[in-house]
Amino acid sequence: MSGIEEINLDQTFHAGHEEAMAKIYERFPSGASLTAWAQEHQEIGTLAHQKFHYLYDRPTEWSGNVVVAGGEFANGIHPGMLIRALIVREVADPHAALLIQPNSTVQTTVHNFSRDERHRLANGNPAPLVDRLRSAMQQQEESDDPERNTLLYGPSQGAVAMAAYAAHPDTERVALAVIEAPNTQDRNNLELLKDFGGSGKSLKDNIQVNFVGHKYLLLYEDLLRGVDLRHLLLYVAGGARPENVALRGVLRQCTLTGYIEQTLGKGSSVVQAWGIKDRVSGDDVNTAIAEFFINHSAYQGVRVVGEHADHSITNRYGLNAHIAKMSIDRLLDSSKL
After folding, report:
1. What whole-number distance in Å separates Cα of residue 53 and Cα of residue 99?
2. CA dihedral 74, 79, 80, 86 (to 10 degrees)
3. What residues are paired with 57 via a beta bridge?
4. Which of 21, 152, 226, 311 is 20 to 30 A from 321 via CA?
């Protein structure tokens, strides 16, 4: 059934994915173990003589499917985004390849945009991000299985990148899952920064929930250190880097509706989720977009309610995995029609 589904955070901790989460926690019990994994899976791509970085992991028993995970604004390769992507893959298809597109921080340069690319991004054109994703996908050997599936999962800025990639004319049929997409309304830079500034009041609460019923306290402590005052100041400094300043241009324009329409037109599936207590991806604008597509069988809107349903729901690992799984399930269901 298509339309708008409601998920209450106060009534569910892990959206039924406790086993998958425990499996990943067991494999990666600390931030250090995740960092080591990331170092082993770093890849370097080249686009128009510009080198860029991404992560890629293909299991030995590869299903032929691919999970692509986008990164949040000014967030680099850190334990929180890694554990989330790994849990999303574990729930969607544990034998899928995993490609992660992080972002530049104050300490690392990931995309290495040229001056022209920064100008295009600042004017709302996401092509430099999409081109890097397309190049990375082409760099990695793809399965020739006609039944293979690609899941594009994007939180916050990652939602913009994944939706734009899904809508690209050369992208084939995919499952798209976006959560807390900021490109739902037009606003200026000041309005965007103001909305982001008040968006993460429940961040620590939403991280803590991931460990209810689990014993992996070292990983939990490492994740909490990643959102302390020192890291917050580093995040703010990273957000002021030219690459990230330019990326604001694709976050502050209302392009999501068009991307979803183009994506659905290919026979792809789309799940769009948002929290009701957030201004970066507001309830009213998301609801309006969802109502526009409400009768499309391959579309699902997910309205997340509850005390901590702000922008930081992107840090609820079970919830994010659940939303991603909804999209791949909808794609598989539509292929049977």
Report:
1. 11
2. 110
3. 98
4. 226
- Residue-wise pLDDT for 198-208, tens only, equals 888 999 999 99
Residue 319: which residues within 8 A CB-CB, separation 6 or more?
Answer: 7, 9, 12, 14, 15, 304, 313
Helix H or strand E encompassing 42: strand 42-47
Residues in CB range of 85: below 8 A, 6 or more apart: 67, 69, 98, 100, 153
Q: Which two tokens stand for residue 331?
A: 């794609």
Q: In angstroms, rounded to a whole number, what is the distance separating the alpha carbons of residues 235 and 238?
A: 5
CA-wise closest residue to 152 among 260, 40, 275, 289: 260
Q: Which of 38, 297, 57, 250 is nearest to 154 (CA)?
A: 250
Q: What pTM, to 2 d.p., does this model score?
A: 0.95
How far is CA 325 from each of CA 26, 55, 153, rounded to the nearest angstrom? 22, 21, 10
pLDDT digits (tens, 9 = 90+) for 34-74: 999 999 999 999 998 889 999 999 999 999 999 999 999 98
**CATH number assigned to the domain comprising residue 275:** 3.40.50.1820
Could you tell me which residues are beta bridge partners of residue 305?
Answer: 8
Domain count, the chain: 1
Sheet holding 42-47, edge to edge: 3-8, 299-305, 269-275, 175-179, 150-155, 66-70, 97-101, 50-57, 42-47
CA gap 228, 65 in Å, rounded: 37
The alpha-carbon radius of gyration of the chain (Å, integer) is 18
- Token output for 237: 């400094």
Cα atoms found within 13 Å of the Cα of residue 162, Cβ hemisphere only: 35
172 DSSP assignment: -
| pLDDT score of 143 | 63
Share of the chain above pLDDT 90, in %: 77
Three-state DSSP class for residue 311: helix
| Amino acid 335: pLDDT | 67
Q: Which domain holds residue 138?
A: 3-335
Q: How far apart are CA 27 and CA 33, in angstroms?
A: 8
DSSP 165: H
